[in-house]
Amino acid sequence: MNASGILGSEPEHVNILVEAGFSAIVTKTFTLEPREGYPPPILVKLESGGYLNAVGLANRGARYIPLLVERAKACGKPIVVSIGGRNAKEFTELAIIVEEAGATAVELNLSCPHVKGHGLDLGSDPSLVYELVKEVASAIKIPVIVKLGLSDRVVDSSGRALEAGAKALTLINAIRAMAIDVYSAKPVLSNRQGGLSGPPIKPIAVRVVFDVYREYKAEIVGCGGISSWKDAAEFILAGAKAVQVGSALLGNRNVANEIVKGLESWTSLLGYSRLAELVGMAHKD
Amino acid sequence: MFRVAEKAGIRRLSSKYYYVEFKLIEPLNADPLPLQFVNVWIPGVDEVPMSIAQYKGGENSISIIFKVVGEGTKALKDVEGFFGIKGPLGKGFDPRHYDKVLFIGGGVGIAPLPYLARYASQYGVVVDAAWGVRGSDMLFNLKEVANDVNEIYYATEDCGTGFCGTATQLAIKLVAENKARWDVVLAVGPGAMLRDLCRLLSSSVNVYVSPEAMVKCGLGACGSCVLKPHPKLLCVDGPVFECAEVIDYLEHVARN
To answer: Distance between CA A261 and CA A251 in Å, rounded?
Structure first.
């Protein structure tokens, strides 16, 4: 799947993502009310690798969700709608809208690292995660995926999300970071702080997936710096059953197809017939 | 990130347009193709997409032609100090596939012409230009700014100079009166102009257009520059397109 935030806020984006070869589409995070997002600069490519972004959850608001779901259905692809609320009530309201629109699943954004009151502010508190996910999972029937970010208690938060009824976890989101321009002496992003994504965060993400799988043997969607089949393979061995690709798509529109091909070859090279047999293999003694 | 640059000079070209040259302290990550653009970061103010009007790699010089429309372009005019350049962005337009190019500029759409002409001349490709503006006071001597352009034709809607009418009307006339002279037309300007040129010229000659759209990240991530209803992003799939690729977008923009 594509990672939430790379396109995914307009129906036309769905077409672009489908053309890019993803097996399922993940939308940009939708909030109840429309959000303008932050003024530019909102995204920079870093010289040391990876990207830094503070888009600010820009989206047209919940009433736009059905348009994207419709488009994905027209393209014959499953669609996961990402939602971002500030509390259980908002998340539940959004989740119901997503289910009524006919989406395949909902992904709760409990990990955006740069918008106050959203995302990581909620996801870094395991008891809050439990409350939120419980309320959402009781209100809808479609699968609830919880996307968590790097925090000291990410393994705890993962456990509580699962207890509360999450079908799967997406690990991880971008990591809180910043860059400063040394000539103007100013932070580069208009929001000053943003989320670091891409190759630099892959080892961090792999570690989180490994720890959560070891603890809970959960259904995990691995995310964080995947740009080749080898990266995807690492996440699978760590315990991920599926992967999301974000930043890599910016430099390579064909990345999804390349990853699928590569994983197929890797599976046979190692002597297996199904990729699923390799999930979590790095845990074997 | 952003390549650091300093303003080397700014001059007013006419009542509406300015020419600013930047000296790149850090070189761009690649030599640009014509019609590629850059995002200019004015620290603390904004990041604005601008056509590359001129580029001289040997001198580490990049220039843009612009008009003041908001805070960002106002700061571009007034602010001193360090700026950031992101790019070159987009796929641009490679004139090497052609022998004779007719460039049609509407208003500030003239901006990419100087570099297009300079680049083309290095490969023996001839670039003629038709430029239309609303008021004659907006014109400046295009030959001075874009000295590699071959023939230049001006159109003014107030009929003060040159052809009396719009850039579109001038372009139609030129193509009709010079059958098979140009093997490609490249137009940059308002949506209505591009739509009309697509409708009226596509049967006689290959037409490429460079529309305007809201550009934010410039890297293909935020999707603000999507050319609805086409699944095309201006910043990575464009900014130059065949008419068929963007015609519904042009229709929509022209109507609003």
So the answer is: 18
- Give the residues across from B7 on adjacent strands: B22
Residues of B whose CB is below 8 A from A6: 221
Coil, helix or strand for B38? strand
What band does B30 get if pLDDT is binned at 50, 70 and 90?
confident
- Could A42 and B2 be called an inter-chain contact, meaning their C-beta atoms sit closer than 8 Å? no
Identify the band that residue B106 occupies on the pLDDT scale cut at 50, 70 and 90.
very high
| Pair B95, B240: CB distance under 8 Å | no
- Say if the Cβ atoms of A184 and B222 lie within 8 Å: no
User: Which residue reads 């719009």 in tokens?
Assistant: B166
pLDDT digits (tens, 9 = 90+) for A227-282: 999 999 999 999 999 999 999 999 999 999 999 999 999 999 999 999 999 999 99
Optimal mutation site among B37, B89, B226, B245, interface A, most CBs of chain A within 10 A: B226
Q: Is B7 exposed, middle or buried (0-12, 13-18, 19+ CB in 10 A)?
A: middle
Is the overall model pTM greater than 0.90, yes or no? yes
Helix (H, G, I), strand (E, B) or coil at B151: coil
Name the average pLDDT for chain B. Answer: 97
Assembly ipTM: 0.95
Say if A45 is an interface residue toward chain B (CB within 8 Å).
yes
Sign for the pseudo-dihedral over CA of B52, B55, B61, B63: negative
Q: Does residue A112 carry a catalytic annotation?
A: yes
Out of A12, A55, A247, whose CB is closest to B228? A12
